[in-house]
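Reopening closed ticket. The problem is back. First fold of the pair:
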Amino acid sequence: CLPGALVLVALLWAPWWALDGAPLAELSGDQDFQLFLHKNLEFTRKIKGDVAALQRVVCDTFQLCKEEELQLVRQDLGIAQAPLEQCHSRAFQAESCLSQIRDGLRAYQSSLATVLELLPAHASLLETLQLDMANLSSNIQQQMEDLGLATVTYPTEDRDPLPAFSSRFQHQVGGFFILANFQRFLETAYRALRHLARL
């Protein structure tokens, strides 16, 4: 029942100083859009909480808690953030940014399979998280259609490039960084939603 959950996330990577000129910012005074923002602030907070819970499990189970201690392994694995350059550009385009957010959510959704393999005892939480992410991605797509925004499809090559882990330890570190990257993704989305709700 999230109307289009991604307008909010659509602006999520635009610098705050540029948001006033972003195409979707004009909707910020619309009552339905404001309702959408407030509902999705709570939804995003829930997803963030679930990811944080999984990060605590990884910390407690594998003693993998601090990114700075794992940077060398991270470089070997090549795990990167989902691309969002269309949301940073000064020439911000709502269609392109929303499409990248949608695609990023889908990439993280499939990446969580790596975490599920590490934490089978927490399958229920991971499945709920993946369902929430799928719903959010679908909501963004629906929001784009409702606003009459063109759907941009990016090449599938290099999307969700999960490495082949050569050891159990690499697999654990990979899961750690997938969660860390996703949490940053969500934090940016949350800040964008909160900012838009205050305009």
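Second fold of the pair, where the issue appears:
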Amino acid sequence: YQWQHTKETRLSKFNQTEIEAMLGSYTKVLFVRDPFQRLIATFLQGMGSNPSFSSFVQDVLDSGTHNTSVAWKPLVSLCRPCLVQYDYVVMFGFQRQELGHLLQRAGLPVDSHLPKFTDTEVLWTYRWLSEQMFSELSVQQKKQLSRFYHWDLAAFPFSSSFLSD
């Protein structure tokens, strides 16, 4: 196929026939994380220039979905789960188990290829951080965030997300 020898990496640069051929020839894996946890991680990594989490969240909300950073943009706008049929969706917190399953399905040795994941070990930390940071937000900000991430919350099983309440 011609697309195998091109430098383009964005699907939008290809026509529908080429896109379908490419997507049909790969195993598609999507890694997802609770949107509120993504916001916290971005804030803690210093990507927000605000002194408080509440101010950072307000900047995210003010930016809207079209002019926002990939770090906190809604997942459905990045990965198009309604258009792309992913073979696997791996949730943060279950990476070791899920990737082991993927390697096994591919016929590869499981333990020799997997790095040490700490996602399951830090879930309790994120729960505590989520409680603390969620309490900093106004009722209006909480409602706006739930609307901002509405489609993510509908598309993926983030049942324990603070934004689903």
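Update: turned out to be a display glitch only; the data is intact. The first strand starts at residue 29 and ends at 32. The CA atoms of residues 57 and 141 lie 8 Å apart. Please close again.
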